[in-house]
Amino acid sequence: MGRPPVLPKKKKDGFYLEIRNKGAKSGTIIIRDTEDAMMLAARQYQTTKDVIILGEHRNGKRVEEKKKSKA
Question: Is the pLDDT at 43 greater than 90, yes or no?
């Protein structure tokens, strides 16, 4: 028997933000279903913590916003 392989965890669908204590190197990741709920949570925590918005994830991958072309 060997040690089981360790695979990275797949991310759930939703909007992610990271909450850290001021000056800390790591924090807690919070998932919200909608962008409005994510922004509400960010406003709630921004007074006492550092908030980093990680964006939207679908099917385990980050969703990139479509860049507007200059047409």
Answer: yes
Cβ count near 19 (within 10 Å): 19
β-bridge pairing 61-62 and 14-21: unpaired
What is d(CA 39, CA 1) in angstroms, rounded to the nearest whole number? 47
Classify residue 50: in a domain, yes or no: yes
- In-domain check, residue 63: no
Mean of per-residue pLDDT scores for the chain: 87
- 9-23 average pLDDT score: 91
Q: Which 3-state string (H, E, C) describes 21-38? A: ECCCCCCEEEEECCHHHH
pLDDT given for residue 68 in this prediction: 53
